[in-house]
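Practice problem: predict the structure.
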Amino acid sequence: VQLVESGGGLVQPGGSLRLSCTASGDIHRINDMAWYRQGPNSTREQRELVGAMKKGGDPSYAAPVQGRVPISMANDKNKIYLQMHMLKPEDTAVYSCSASLWDFSGRYALGAWGQGTQVTVSS
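Answer:
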């Protein structure tokens, strides 16, 4: 299962961006998807959770982004979105998504990490 993120870029403080993540491959049903971010001084192992959402459920958010980054999921596609508002310089990071799912053989699986999409907040 592959995950591909898009939508990042350079934005001024206070601006907005919408990130997308699409899962593809042997996917029968998505269980949940989540967004993580890796700051400029962090390693991949230090990625922090931004927010997550179960298919058909309500999203949950990490404290640093609560109220600023509504997450939505496309019901008819294996996609998750992260709409980021009131961006701050400390939001600068590579944003990646994860997914847990069931494949067509009925096995529970985790999607492979994608390359992520860079978000830079700077004036």
